[in-house]
Amino acid sequence: LGILGVPLAMALKKRPAARVALKRPAATAKKRPAARPARPRSTVDSIQDDLNREGFGIILLQTVRVRITRSDLLKTDHLLLPVEIVGAACDIADDMRELSAGWMGGGTSLGNALWDQFAFPGLRAAHKLHKAGNHRASLAELLGLLLYMNVEDDWLIDQEVACDWPRFRRFFTDLSKAWRQLLQRSDAVLGLAPKAGRPGGYRGRLAEMLRAWQEETNKSLADFDAPTS
User: Fold this and answer.
1) Class of residue 80 by CB neighbours under 10 A (exposed 0-12, middle 13-18, buried 19+)
2) Which of 51, 116, 127, 148 has the fewest beta carbons closer than 10 A?
3) Which helix H or strand E contains 88, and what residues bound it?
4) Are 152 and 100 in contact (CB under 8 A)?
5) Cα dihedral angle (45, 47, 50, 52), rounded to 10 degrees?
6) Residues 124-146, buried b or exposed e (16+ Cβ, 10 A)?
7) What's the whole-model pTM score?
């Protein structure tokens, strides 16, 4: 059942992904006695602090060294977006992760809770924010869900939400629609191409994340049987 099968490409011009903890900046590395000074290295946390002060947040999509230069960090797989988007999105993903890690009940009840506390409310919030013209806040809601759902599958493989098949199906069609509508906005509006980040911005990387999530989710959905009556 490919209920996420609506193409995203029409809106595209060209995630655990945890938020880096904020700490006091560490001292830069000492220069080596050489003809050319060594590049100063900082901790990832201190670079995050600097980016925060500049109005940006970074979502690391791969493991990186603890000490690294800023230029090398920006060569890794990441998203660099306005800090208000990254902060809100990572809060959502972290809250979902904390709920899952601390759940004392069974898997089915956890799946139900993730839907009731995050998936359904998050999509509703994203829709309302988009309609009100607050597109970056809408992006934060959708990105927060994506950062969790792209890594974990406990929200999907064991839950009773699918017993209400029309509502279950509608969530995915509405989610696809929400992303398509949002990505019709420009990079400037969504903050997808900050000058401090990668040339060309992050629309393409976000699109890759969405396509990968869509494909994996559709594989899981193929195991679901739609009710016959």
Assistant:
1) buried
2) 116
3) helix 83-101
4) yes
5) -60
6) ebbbebbeeeebbbbbbbbbbbb
7) 0.82
Q: How far apart are CA 186 and CA 174, in angstroms?
A: 21
Question: With the C-alpha atoms ordered 87, 88, 91, 93, is the resulting torsion angle positive or negative?
Answer: negative
Beta carbons of 162 and 139 less than 8 angstroms apart: no
State how far the Cα of 118 lies from the Cα of 96, in Å rounded to an integer: 7
Angle at 134 between CA 128 and CA 140, to 5 degrees: 85
Q: Which two tokens stand for residue 174?
A: 């509405």
CA 148/CA 94 separation, integer angstroms = 8
| Residue showing tokens 């059942």 | 1
